[in-house]
Prior knowledge:
Layout: H1 3-6, E1 11-15, H2 20-33, E2 36-41, E3 56-59, H3 65-72, E4 77-80, H4 89-110, E5 114-118, H5 144-158, E6 165-170, E7 172-174, H6 179-191, E8 194-197, E9 206-208, H7 209-221, E10 229-232, H8 240-251, E11 260-263, H9 273-281, E12 299-301, E13 309-311
Parallel strand pairs: 1-2, 1-4, 2-3, 4-5, 5-6, 6-10, 7-9, 8-11
Antiparallel strand pairs: 12-13
Amino acid sequence: MSGPELLAGRRVLVTGATGFVGARLAERLVVECGAVVRVLSRTIGRCAPLSRLPVEIAIGDLLDPASLDAAAAGCDLVLHCARGTDGSERERRAVDVDGTRNLLVASLRAGVSRFLHTSTVVVYDLPGSGELDERARRGGPSDPYADAKRDAETLVLGYAARLPVTVVQPTVVYGPRAGVYGRDVLEELRTTRIPLVNGGSGICNALYVDDLVTAMFLAATSERAPGETFLVSGPEHPKRRHRVRTAKAGRRLPSAEKFFQTVEPAQGSWWPTWAQWLKTHSTARKIPPPTMGAAKKGYKPLGDAPGTYVHVK
């Protein structure tokens, strides 16, 4: 049986279900898998995207352990998609790290059979060229979001001896209701210019949201997944300028000259320091799907989702 079939009738707690990825995950769990879905939300008002679905809403907060105990009670799986998006840097980190710790404790008490944590590719020190896989070194430029995600991953994998945990690390996720790689890009195209470092020649590891959700189904149900970390990317690797120009074409906006500006970062210039790093790494070809020789590196495909494979120990 496939991942979706293995989720039929199972009670699943989804965090972050009011966001882009989590909402699509909850929808497919109900419609495609026939799962019994409970979603965690701080307020009922945030649940409008889920109003047409037969899901149970558990009002709670990742920083409130008692509410997490109630939300996780009776659940077989926990799919953790939430992240800190509001407040100060310190408050966002508390959600990402302390909230993940609280949810792990609640999941352990509830006796769940799988805890799936959604992380990100930016936890790695991305190479200047070649391909990236899960054996790469964690690290890279200091960034509050990446640092919090690395620390949360460490927490999750530290529970592997007590709880069946799995981590997925998506790349550039796009699709309906996307924010950072969807709505925000379109808004920038409408109102300003988008700088393209090195002419936008860098690789964009684009990942459609449904491919990510399919990978999450597999990671949540495969017997080989506990204790593993999975980079998830799409089958194609468009250049960043192609992604931006496609977005422009979709909006029928005026000519590219108004929106694109090629930037050559210079030491000591107004351009922020991260652009220096991006320029150095802009030619990297990062996340290969299984068809690009992953098996030769000691990996086998976990399932049919693009870019999802497990290291053979």
